[in-house]
Specification:
Number of helices: 2
CATH topology: Porin
Largest sheet: 12 strands, antiparallel, barrel
Shape: globular
Distance between the termini: 57 Å
Number of strands: 16
Organism: Roseateles koreensis
Order of helices and strands: HEEEEEEEEEHEEEEEEE
Number of domains: 1
Signal peptide: 1-22
Radius of gyration: 24 Å
Pfam families: Gcw_chp
Strand order of the largest sheet: 1-4-5-6-7-8-9-10-11-12-13-16
Keywords: Signal
InterPro entries: CHP02001
Strand content: over 45%
CATH superfamily: monomeric porin ompg
């Protein structure tokens, strides 16, 4: 018996419709979040919490096209080197896409915002500049290796002749702004099995016009996935110069070197 052409067309249409519906099950937007507690908040190797604990969390909205927006928050120290800041709010967005089967490129921008904080200035000179910074970045990932370059699109956390004080001392030439400062971030992760990951990191900060503030940092971390949590212990350190990365508390006492080597413990939940 010959099959009628009409029945063939109906069957083909049904099959194609089913395939399209299956493809449509991929959500256009994926919302993820994270919440964690850390024994110290290290940013590029430098403690931002006076070596005290930090509560941190964030949200990310990822579009199926590869575009994304997100925010991340952490408490920070109110000491002078953070210009009175008590909270850091990161706002970022970008586009991540595949270059090949194992290679991806992530291009984006990130703003570091500290509500209510104002920049330091030379003695007796007031400023009303906000303590913020904006980076543009490119992140290339190849398997377990990634290399990220961040370039400051503004003065690096507001650092310039006025806020550094150089312009107010006749014996010191004005340095200018620090826009264009760069941070290179290299990472390599090794899957050890059974939920264990060994993470290695090497970074270098080059502060434009302020070479004495430039330094390199490292991190060696061991992470364990268990019961829906990520537990991490990391050895973090820098070669930052003590004179420029040593701070006291709000009362001007108990100076700590915030860039020396230390152990950082963290527990994090992703949802």
């Amino acid at each position: 018996m010959k099959t009628k052409p009409t029945l063939i067309l109906i069957a083909a249409a049904t099959l194609l419709t089913g395939t399209a519906r299956a493809a449509d099950t991929t959500p256009e937007h994926t919302l993820t979040g994270n919440l964690g507690l850390s024994s110290d908040y290290r940013f590029r190797g430098i403690s931002q919490t006076y070596k005290l604990p930090a509560i941190q969390g964030g949200l990310d909205d990822i579009h199926s096209s590869g575009a994304y927006l997100g925010t991340w928050l952490s408490n920070v120290s109110g000491n002078s080197y953070n210009n009175g800041a008590g909270l850091e709010v990161d706002l970022y967005g970008g586009y991540k896409f595949a270059l090949s089967q194992d290679m991806t490129l992530d291009l984006g921008a990130l703003a570091y915002v500290y509500p209510g904080a104002r920049l330091n200035s030379a003695p007796g000179v007031a400023t009303n500049e906000k303590y913020t910074s904006v980076d543009l970045y490119a992140d290339l990932s190849v398997g377990p290796f990634s290399a990220k370059l961040s370039i400051a699109a503004s003065d690096y956390f507001g650092l310039n002749s006025q806020t550094s004080g150089y312009a107010y001392f006749s014996s010191l030439p004005a340095r200018g702004g620090s826009k264009g400062s760069a941070y290179l971030d290299l990472n390599y992760n090794i899957d050890l099995g059974d939920g264990l990951t060994l993470g290695t990191h090497l970074g270098h900060l080059a502060v434009k016009h302020y070479d004495e503030l430039s330094y390199s940092d490292f991190k060696l971390a061991l992470s364990k996935e268990t019961h829906g949590l990520t537990l991490t212990g990391a050895l973090v350190g820098t070669n930052a110069k003590r004179d420029f990365y040593q701070v006291a508390n709000a009362a001007g006492q108990n100076a700590k070197r915030v860039g020396d080597t230390g152990l950082v413990l963290c527990i994090r939940k992703t949802f």
